[in-house]
Amino acid sequence: MNNDIKEILYSKEDIAAVTKKLGTQITKDYADKKPLVICILTGAVLFMTDLVREIDTYCEIDFMDISSYGDATESSGQVKIIKDLDKSVEGRHVLIVEDIIDTGRTLEKVMELLSHRDAASVKVCTLLDKPARREKVVTPDYAGFEVPNEFVVGYGLDYTGFYRNLPYVGILKPEVYAEN
Predict the structure, then answer these.
(1) Catalytic residue among 99, 102, 129, 158
(2) Which of 34, 65, 76, 131 has its CA 20 to 30 Å from the CA of residue 124?
(3) What's the pTM?
(4) Is 102 a catalytic residue?
């Protein structure tokens, strides 16, 4: 797997440091709100797990599985809910945790859905932000790193289901995904 990586952008240590920083800020912002932290599966699960351990206030977690990529490197634009929430968001302060915000199409749909379900507030925390590809006006409230317009994998992000277990975020060599 490591041989398929063109460049490591963020090391395990970089990710741990930014996760701690984000957790500290979220702790301050949500100190009296008991947020519902929603992990967008599958990519955000590693980040969310580390993030909630850095949040020092009462919070609950839940999961949504949304698909807009399939096995492609580009979003299809079609957002499909594969697994919906188990908990109600009505009257709750919601924090969506994402691995990466790319075009913003998927996140926009999720935010609209949660607002229609009468969440008290909806904010977003993402490990990676890729504003160069943004098509929708979606701005994260908390962001770890800004990434270039490259195909990145690792620390939860995948290509055809692989590379999620890399402990860092790196750029996948184009020849790896050009083969498919």
Answers:
(1) 102
(2) 76
(3) 0.92
(4) yes
